[in-house]
Amino acid sequence: MTANEPVVAHAPGRPRLLLGAYDLADVGYTDDEFFVSGAATRYAPVGDHGPDGRWQAAPSGSADYTIRIVVLKPVDGFNGTVVVEWLNVSGGIDAPAVWMMTHRELLRSGYGYVAVSAQQVGIEGGASLGMDLSLKKQDPERYWHLNHPQDAYSYDIFTQAGRLVRDRFEALGLPRPERIVAVGESQSAMFLTTYVNAVDPLVRLYDGFLIHSRFGPAAALDGASIFAPPEDSVPQAVRFRTDLRVPLFTVLTETDVIGGVRPGYHLARQPDTEWLRAWEIPGTAHADNYTIRVSYIDSGTAPLADLVAAYAPTDDLMGQQLPHFINFAPQHHYVLQAAIAALDNWIRTGDGPPVAPQIALRDGLPLLDDNGLATGGVRTPWVDVPLARTSGVGSGETALSHLFGSGEPFDAATVARLYPGGEPEYLERFTTALDSAIRSGFLLAADRAEILALAAAGYPR
C-alpha cells in the first residue's frame, strides 16, 4: 500500500448525503458511494507562511485512513468535466455546499460530481457550529469502519480522491474525464486556499479551482480547527499565491468580504491576473434562503409557486427566531452558477471570465446606495432594480445568524416611489438589468426565463 494507490470498494445502498428532496433518477443522474482506504501524507511548512500565500511545504509523515466519496454522473450527455467537492463540515455534517448552490447548472450541463469526506468532523464528529451529524453518528452500522486520522491529512486525502477521478475513473463508474475541478465553500474554501498555496505546487493535479466564500484567512496546514485559533493571535488574512498554475475563481458574498466571525476577504484582496478572478456579489450573505429552503426542492421542475414560497422572507433560522429576516436574495445562487460555467469555459478555451469591480467599502463596511444596498461588485437586477434591501450583515445573535445576513422588503410607499408605473415598469426595468447582467457574463441565459417568472411572481400586490 502506498499513498498513491488507495483501495476502492463500492458501497451498495443509499449514501448519507443531503443532495436534495428530489430523486436523482428523475433528473437523469445516478449516485454511488465508495469507501476509499490508503495512507495519506501530512505536510509541514518550509520557511515563512506569510500573507502573500507563496508557501512551501514538505511531506512530514503519513497515516492510514478510510473515508467515503459519493459519485454522481449523468445517465447521458457527460460534458467531460468532473467537479470534485471538498465537503463542508462547519454544521457538524458532511454538506455538499457548492452542489446545493450550483446543482441546476451541473445537472443541465452534464457535469460529473464527486463529493469527498475530506475532513475528520464529517466522519468522526468534532468542533463545529452545529450538532454532531457525522457519518458515524448518523449510521454507525454503515460507517463504523471509516477512519480519519486528523485534518492535517485532509490535503493529501483530497489529492488522492482527485487522482482516483483522473486515473482510475472506471473503478468509480465514471466516464473518462477531460477536466477535474476542485471546489469548496466556506471552511472548505479556507482549506482549499491553503491547498492552492502550499500543496498544489507539489502535486499539480486539478485543472482549476472554484473557491467560494473563503473569508480572509486560510486554514492551518497542521489541520488545527478553524474554530479554535491560537488564543494569543488573530488569524491573518492570506492572499492566493501569484504564481498560480491553473485558473482559480473565487466568489465572495458581502458577508465574506466584510468578515465578522473571521477577518474579511477585503483584507486579502489582490488584483485579477491571467489565472485569477474574484467576483464579489452585493446584496448577498454567506448563507441564505436558497441554502436552507430552496435548494432542496429546486430540481428544475419544481412548481413556480413552491419556489416563490421557499424564497419568501423568514425570521426562522433552523428553529432560532431572529429579530429580522435572513437574507432571501436569489443572486447568490444564480451568480455562482454563472461562475462555475465560466470556470469550465476558462479551462476549456483559455478565455477568462469577465473582470468585476469590487464591492465599495468605507471603514470596512459596504458603501450603500439610497436603497440601502451595497454599491460596486457584480451587478444584478436584484440590486439595480430592487424590491428589498438585502445585506450580508446580520444582527449577530450567534455566529450562525451572522452568516445568514439580513433582508427587509420595501414597504408599499417605497415600491410606489421607485416604480410609479407599477408592475409593468418594474418588470421592464428588471428585464433590462437582467439582460445586461447576462451580456456581461454574470448570469446565465439558461436561467433567464426562470428569473423573470420569479420576478413577476414576487412583485407585491
Defining key terms:
alpha/beta, nine-stranded mixed beta sheet, 15 strands, 20% strand, globular
Helicity, as a percent range: 25-40%
List low-confidence stretches.
none
Rg over alpha carbons: 21 Å
Q: What class would the helix/strand composition place it in?
A: alpha/beta
How many extended strands? Answer: 15
The count of helical stretches stands at: 15
Percentage beta strand: 15-25%
Overall geometry: globular
> What's the N-to-C terminus distance?
66 Å
Order of helices and strands: EEEEHEHHHHEHEEHEHHEEHEEHEHEHHH
**Strand order across the biggest sheet?**
1-2-3-5-4-6-7-8-9
Largest sheet: 9 strands, mixed
Average pLDDT for all residues: 95
Give a quick rundown of the structure:
This protein has 461 residues and is α/β, with parallel strands linked by helices. The chain has helices at residues 97-109, 120-124, 135-138, 140-143, 154-167, 187-203, 254-258, 289-294, 304-311, 331-349, 381-384, 399-403, 412-418, 422-440, 448-458, and strands at residues 7-11, 29-46, 56-74, 81-86, 112-116, 179-185, 208-212, 248-253, 276-281, 316-317, 320-321, 361-362, 365-366, 388-391, 406-409.
